[in-house]
C-alpha cells in the first residue's frame, strides 16, 4: 500500500514550500508541490509610479532582493523602449554577477551540502589524511593540515556544546550518507571557509549598490552611481580596484575548492545521476548585456526542448518575440479564482483558497508554461544553453568537472549525466565559476569604457500618454526571472512576476502535466519514510526559494508522516 | 564600542515592516555617534553576515507576536532573543536564527543582543502600519535612543525633526 509523506517546510531558509509524496515499494510514485504562501505584490503595485516599482519588488524576497530590482527596471525600460548607457549595464552586470556568485556559493555549501555531507562523521576523520586528500585534489591554500585540524576542533566544540545551530536539522548517520569521514571533513572545512568568501563577494554588491542588503543605486534608465575618478564619494579607481581584489580572492576559492568539491560529491554519489531528471524542457535567458539596447550579451540563453541539445532555440534580445509570446500561466491547480491559461500581460490575481485537493487546486504557485509545456529553469538550464551555444568558459568548466568526476568514479561520465539531481548541483557550481570569469570581463569593460572618456550612467525616462507593455528578464541564480508590466498614462496598470521557483515548483498545468519538482521526484528512492533525505536532495537541488510568496496560510494536514525540516 | 541597530521585516505586509520603518524614523529624527550603524535588513538572511559580525552590541527591531494588544512594545535581551526567532512564523524568521547560529559557528556573536519587539495588529498584504503600531513606532524609536544612551552614545535629536519629510516607507508617504 502506498504511504504518503509530507515535507513542510522544505527549505532551510526562506519560504514555505510543502511537498507531498506517495511512496510505494521504497520509491516515489506521485508527487505534489505546493506553495503555502500567497504573493500579493501585483496588487500592491497597481496605480504606482513605474520608476519606483523596483523598490517594492526587491522587498518580495530576502534572498532575491537584487534580482527583482533588476528585472523590474528592465521591464519598465522595455515598455518605454528606453536604452541604458553601457556604463550602467556594466555596473548592473557586476552587481548581478557578484550576487550570483554569492547565492550559488551559499546554496552549494550552506543550504544543500548538508544533504550529502555528514558533519558528525567529519568529527571521526583523520585530519592529516584529510589534508593529504585535499592536496591530492587541488592546490587550494585552505587544505593545509593546521587549517583542517582547527576546523575539526571547532566543530567538535560546537557539536559537544549541544548547540548544533545550522547543523541541528541534518540527517546524520542516515544510510544514504556515503562519504568517508575524511571527505566529510574536507567539505566541512570548505563550508566554513565559504562563509568568509560569500561575505567578500557580497561586498562587491555593497560597494556598487551603495547600500546592502537592499541596493540603492538603480534607476529606470540606468544607475545612480556618479563616476568621477577625482571624487571620494563617487565611483572612482580606488573603489574599482577594491572590487577587483575581492573578485580575485573569491575566484581562487571557487576554482580551486568549490569546483573540486562538487566533482568529488558527484563521483562518490554517481548513482544520483540516475534520479531527478524530471522535466527536461530547459528555459534560460541571455544575460550580461554589453550594449545599450540589450542585443549583445556575454552569457547566452534559450530554450532546449525535451533534453535534446540539437533542438536549441536561442533567445536573442530584450525584445525577443519568441520569449515574449510563449510564456503563459495556468491557474487550474492554483488557489486563484477561475480556470484560465493566460499571458502575463492579461493575468489577474484574485485569490480563492480551497483546501489541498490532490486532483484540484492545491498551491498558491501558478503553473507557467513555455510553448504550452512545463519548463525547468535554473543553472542547469542555463549551463546547457551556454554549452550548446559554444560559450568557451562554460565548455571548459563542464568538461573539466566531468573529467574529474570520471577519474574519481573510475567510469566515463558525460553530458547526459547532467539531467539529474546531482547534475543540477554540478551545473550550479559550473555557473558560479563562469560568473567569476564574467565579473572579470565586466570589470575590464567598465574600466576601459570609463578610460575612453564616457562617464554617462543614466538616460531619463519619459512616459507618453496611453498604454505601454513591456517585459524584463534576468537569468537569476535560481533561473529565468521575468517581470511583466502594463503602464497606462504613466501609472502601473498590471504587473506580474514570473519567478524561477514558479517555473520549477509550479503545480500541474492546464493539461495536468506535473511541474519540474513533481516530475523530478517520481522514481526517487526513499529508504526511510520517516527520514526522507532523498526527497530533500532532489528538491534542494533546485535551490527552492518561495519567499516570493507573502501571506501565510495554514493548510489542512492530512498526512500520514509529517516531517519538519528547517 | 561598535553597535549595530538592525531593523528587520517585510514592508509589504503592513505591520510586519515595523523594523524597517523604525530605522527610517531613527535616521530621520536623530544624528548618531560614529560608533553606531543603522541598517534596514528587510527580510534578508546570510547577506547580513558582514553587517553583524563582531559587534559589541546588536539591537534588533522587529514585529513580534507575543499575545499582547497590538502596539505593545517589548524588550528582550541576550539569551531570550534567539528563542524568539526559533519559535515564531514570519517570512524572515529562519534568516535571523540561521544568521545567529552561523555567527556562533564563526565565533563572531555580538557581545550583547537586545531585541525591541512590537505586537502587530495587521499582517495582511499591503503597505503602511496600522494605527496602533504607527503610534508604537514613536515609542520604539525613543526606547532605542534610550538604550544607546545607556552606553554613553545618546543620539542627538535633529533640530528640524518635525518638519523633515516622511520616509519612503512611511504610511503618510505611501498612502497619501
CATH class term of chain B: Alpha Beta
Provide the succession of SSEs of chain B. EHEEHEEHHEHEH
What is the count of DSSP helices of chain A, taking H or I runs of 4+ residues? Answer: 16
Query: For the report, how would you describe the main beta sheet of chain A?
Result: 4 strands, mixed
SSE blueprint:
The complex is a heterodimer of chains A (566) and B (176).
Chain A: E1 3-7, E2 17-24, E3 27-35, E4 37-38, H1 41-45, H2 53-57, H3 65-80, H4 86-112, H5 119-122, H6 127-137, H7 145-160, H8 181-209, E5 218-219, E6 222-223, H9 237-268, E7 282-283, E8 287-289, E9 297-299, E10 302-304, E11 312-314, H10 321-326, E12 327-330, E13 341-342, E14 367-370, H11 379-388, H12 392-409, H13 421-451, E15 467-476, E16 479-488, E17 491-498, H14 500-505, H15 516-521, H16 533-540, E18 551-552, E19 561-563
Parallel strand pairs in A: 1-19
Antiparallel strand pairs in A: 1-2, 2-3, 4-18, 5-6, 7-10, 8-9, 10-11, 12-13, 12-14, 15-16, 16-17
Chain B: E1 3-8, H1 18-29, E2 30-31, E3 36-42, H2 49-52, E4 57-63, E5 73-77, H3 80-87, H4 93-105, E6 112-118, H5 131-149, E7 156-157, H6 171-174
Parallel strand pairs in B: 1-3, 1-4, 4-6
Antiparallel strand pairs in B: 2-7, 5-6
Commentary on this structure:
The complex is a heterodimer of chains A (566) and B (176). Chain A has 566 residues and is an alpha+beta fold. Chain A has one domain (3-563): Cytochrome-c3 Hydrogenase, chain B (Orthogonal Bundle), CATH 1.10.645.10. Helix content of chain A is 41%, strand content 15%. Chain A has 16 helices and 19 strands. Chain A has helices at residues 41-45, 53-57, 65-80, 86-112, 119-122, 127-137, 145-160, 181-209, 237-268, 321-326, 379-388, 392-409, 421-451, 500-505, 516-521, 533-540, and strands spanning 3-7, 17-24, 27-35, 37-38, 218-219, 222-223, 282-283, 287-289, 297-299, 302-304, 312-314, 327-330, 341-342, 367-370, 467-476, 479-488, 491-498, 551-552, 561-563. In chain A, strand 8 and strand 9 form a beta hairpin. Chain A starts with a strand and ends with a strand. Residues 11-15 and 547-566 of chain A have low confidence and may be disordered. Chain B has 176 residues and is α/β, with parallel strands linked by helices. Chain B has a single domain, classed as HybD-like (Rossmann fold, 3-Layer(aba) Sandwich). Chain B has a 5-stranded mixed sheet with strand order 3-1-4-6-5. In chain B, helix 1 (18-29) packs across helix 5 and helix 3 (80-87) crosses helix 4 (93-105). Chain B is globular, with a radius of gyration of 15 Å. Chain B starts with a strand and ends with a helix.
Amino acid at each position: 500500500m502506498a504511504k504518503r509523506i509530507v515535507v513542510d517546510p522544505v527549505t532551510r531558509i526562506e519560504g514555505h514550500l510543502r511537498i507531498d509524496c506517495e511512496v510505494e515499494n521504497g520509491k516515489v510514485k506521485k508527487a505534489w508541490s505546493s506553495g503555502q504562501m500567497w504573493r500579493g505584490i501585483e496588487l500592491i503595485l497597481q496605480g504606482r509610479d513605474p520608476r519606483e516599482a523596483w523598490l517594492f519588488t526587491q522587498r518580495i524576497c530576502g534572498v532575491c532582493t537584487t534580482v527583482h530590482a533588476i528585472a523590474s527596471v528592465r521591464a519598465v525600460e522595455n515598455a518605454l523602449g528606453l536604452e541604458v548607457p553601457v556604463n550602467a549595464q556594466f555596473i548592473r552586470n557586476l552587481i548581478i554577477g557578484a550576487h550570483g556568485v554569492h547565492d550559488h556559493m551559499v546554496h552549494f555549501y550552506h543550504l544543500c551540502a548538508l544533504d550529502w555531507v555528514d558533519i558528525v562523521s567529519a568529527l571521526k576523520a583523520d585530519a592529516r589524511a584529510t589534508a593529504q586528500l585535499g592536496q591530492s585534489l587541488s592546490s587550494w591554500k585552505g587544505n593545509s593540515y593546521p587549517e583542517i585540524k582547527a576546523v575539526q576542533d571547532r566543530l567538535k566544540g560546537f557539536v559537544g556544546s549541544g548547540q548544533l545551530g545550522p547543523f541541528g536539522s541534518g540527517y546524520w548517520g542516515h544510510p544514504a550518507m556515503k562519504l568517508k569521514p575524511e571527505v566529510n571533513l574536507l567539505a566541512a572545512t570548505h563550508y566554513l571557509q565559504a562563509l568568509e568568501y560569500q561575505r567578500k563577494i557580497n561586498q562587491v554588491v555593497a560597494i556598487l549598490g551603495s547600500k546592502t542588503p537592499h541596493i540603492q543605486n538603480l534607476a529606470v534608465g540606468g544607475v545612480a552611481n556618479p563616476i568621477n575618478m577625482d571624487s571620494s564619494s563617487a565611483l572612482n579607481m580606488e573603489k574599482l580596484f577594491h572590487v577587483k581584489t575581492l573578485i580575485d580572492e573569491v575566484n581562487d576559492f571557487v576554482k580551486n575548492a568549490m569546483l573540486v568539491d562538487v566533482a568529488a560529491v558527484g563521483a562518490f554519489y554517481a548513482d544520483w545521476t540516475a534520479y531527478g531528471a524530471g522535466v527536461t524542457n530547459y528555459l534560460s535567458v541571455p544575460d550580461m548585456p554589453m550594449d545599450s539596447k540589450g542585443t549583445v550579451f556575454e552569457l547566452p540563453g534559450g530554450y532546449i526542448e525535451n533534453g535534446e541539445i540539437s533542438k536549441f532555440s536561442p533567445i536573442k534580445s530584450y525584445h525577443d518575440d519568441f520569449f515574449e509570446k510563449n510564456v503563459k500561466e495556468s491557474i487550474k491547480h492554483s488557489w486563484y479564482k477561475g480556470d484560465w491559461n493566460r499571458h502575463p500581460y492579461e493575468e489577474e490575481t484574485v485569490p480563492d483558497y480551497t483546501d489541498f485537493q490532490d486532483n484540484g487546486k492545491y498551491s498558491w504557485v501558478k503553473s507557467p508554461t513555455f510553448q504550452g509545456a512545463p519548463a525547468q529553469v535554473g543553472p542547469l538550464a542555463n549551463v546547457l544553453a551556454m554549452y550548446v551555444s559554444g560559450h568557451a568558459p562554460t565548455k571548459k568548466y563542464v568538461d573539466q568537472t566531468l573529467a574529474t568526476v570520471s577519474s574519481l568514479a573510475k567510469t566515463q561520465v558525460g553530458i547526459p549525466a547532467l539531467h539529474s539531481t546531482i547534475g543540477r548541483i554540478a551545473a550550479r557550481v559550473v555557473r558560479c565559476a563562469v560568473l567569476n570569469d564574467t565579473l572579470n570581463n565586466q570589470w575590464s569593460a567598465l574600466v576601459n569604457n570609463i578610460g575612453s572618456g564616457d562617464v554617462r550612467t543614466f538616460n531619463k525616462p519619459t512616459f507618453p500618454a496611453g498604454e505601454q507593455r513591456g517585459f524584463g528578464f534576468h537569468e537569476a541564480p535560481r533561473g529565468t526571472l521575468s517581470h511583466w508590466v502594463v503602464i497606462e498614462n504613466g501609472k502601473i496598470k498590471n504587473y506580474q512576476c514570473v519567478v524561477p521557483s514558479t517555473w520549477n515548483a509550479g503545480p500541474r498545468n492546464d493539461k495536468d502535466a506535473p511541474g519540474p519538482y513533481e516530475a523530478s521526484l517520481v522514481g526517487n528512492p526513499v529508504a526511510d519514510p520517516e527520514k526522507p533525505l532523498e526527497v530533500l536532495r532532489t528538491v534542494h537541488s533546485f535551490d527552492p526559494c518561495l519567499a516570493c510568496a507573502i501571506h501565510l496560510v495554514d493548510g489542512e494536514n492530512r498526512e500520514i508522516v509529517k516531517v519538519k525540516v528547517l | 564600542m561598535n553597535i549595530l541597530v538592525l531593523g528587520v521585516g517585510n514592508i509589504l505586509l503592513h505591520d510586519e515592516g515595523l523594523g524597517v520603518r523604525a530605522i527610517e524614523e531613527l535616521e530621520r529624527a536623530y544624528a548618531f555617534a560614529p560608533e553606531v550603524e543603522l541598517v534596514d535588513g528587510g527580510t534578508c538572511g546570510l547577506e547580513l553576515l558582514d553587517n553583524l559580525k563582531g559587534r559589541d552590541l546588536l539591537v534588533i527591531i522587529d514585529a513580534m507576536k507575543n499575545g499582547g494588544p497590538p502596539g505593545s512594545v517589548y524588550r528582550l535581551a541576550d539569551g531570550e532573543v534567539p528563542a524568539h526567532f526559533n519559535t515564531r512564523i514570519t517570512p524572515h524568521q529562519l534568516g535571523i536564527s540561521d544568521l545567529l547560529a552561523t555567527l556562533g559557528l564563526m565565533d563572531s556573536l555580538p557581545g550583547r543582543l537586545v531585541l525591541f519587539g512590537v505586537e502587530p495588529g495587521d499582517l495582511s498584504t499591503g503597505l503602511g502600519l496600522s494605527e496602533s503600531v504607527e503610534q508604537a513606532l514613536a515609542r520604539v524609536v525613543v526606547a532605542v535612543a534610550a538604550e544607546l544612551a545607556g552606553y554613553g552614545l545618546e543620539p542627538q535629536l535633529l533640530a528640524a525633526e518635525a518638519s523633515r519629510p516622511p520616509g519612503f516607507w512611511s504610511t503618510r508617504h505611501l498612502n497619501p
